[in-house]
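Much of our argument rests on the idea that a fold can be written as discrete symbols. Part of our work consisted of pairing the sequence of a single chain with a tokenised description of its backbone. The amino acid sequence and the backbone structure tokens for this protein are reproduced below.
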Amino acid sequence: MTMDRNSSTERTPLTSLTESFERYLQDKGKGRGGDGGNYRRNAARELKRFAEWAAGDRGSDDWSGIVPVEVDRGPTFEDLDEWVFREYARHLAGDRGLKQNTVQTYYRYISAWCGWCVNEGYLEAHYAQRASAMAPLPEDDGRKPGDQQAWTSEQRHALTRHVDEQARDAVEAYTTLPDDTDPLDTQRARYTAMKAARDRALVFVLAYTAVRVGELLRDPNDPRRRGVRWEDLSLDDGSMDVYRKKQQWDAASLPDPVISPLRSYRQLMDPPTERWPVFPTFDQRTLAGLVQEELADRGEPPEAIAERRSEYPRDLLLALDADICPPSITTDGARSILQRLSEAAEIDIDHPKHNYLAPHGGRRGMGEVLVRAFGYTVAARYLDNSEEMVRERYSHIEAGELGDVATEALEEIDSLSG
């Protein structure tokens, strides 16, 4: 029996715009059922804004939406044409709080949905891509918002030196405690040392491996990105298996500066199994709920659970002893950690978007080092990017080198003329 391709959703000019959103997002999402991925989350946000604007809810006071005032219904595909997308482009461009590249990015989400609608039979033409529709959009200078920060050598050294000192002090304080120290105080010292060691290991990995933060830590919007586990690391070989942006597992290099912080951190934490995340969350609220739920599932009564928790100053320590595996910190969690560490290290940061050393800046800064030292081909392999993309993103290096060549040529001509 053959099912009619239109049987699940009838595609007519009067179909509501929002009826198409979920199917589109499933097609563009990642993971089982298409319910994960950052693109899906961002596209869903922009489609919602577009629908609200089309209904007259997000325009100016004199904007009533794309449906004629005398018609009592919500926006449908019948109402979409070239003029609608032109007006939305003008609406985005007129938002003084948006940078020009952000306007371009937001419009691309709507344009991609429009193209999908053409393929699915909702629309007859890709109105959003017509020249007149895109005319109000500002020029795109090729830069991606928030993607330009690169840690300088001075910033990288300042941050790694700070976390190294903090970890050394915390570990020494824990390992030199007198034998008669109260058990709870000993556990508190261990917890402090583990947290400092985790922060050091995280900073060193971000600073020297050039691994994307989304490949290293948990992404709540993509179930496949659960954060690297100890079983994914081979410290002897200097490698780490990560789920790459290209949707497949691959080995990333762990250079020498990263190995020692990871070894020290692992020895201190002593995870009960290899399946533990390398960078587990230390959030007390998350861990408290996890510990109570897991112990209850194991059959322990509430009174016994409360008594066991009272024996530990932090639930992470109980989780370690009871082998209750916590989740990895998220990509947003890493940003919060780096904000805290950047402030504590008193690092001088001059960037229009970030007042701290953002995770992607570590990768970009390492790219700068590799391109200058070994060229674009080697840098592309290490960064897991195409050489073409690396040349594009680090074009300022080549431009500077060509400028030096031009200067040298001019000086040689001037000396010959003299």
About this structure: The CA atoms of residues 10 and 122 lie 9 Å apart.
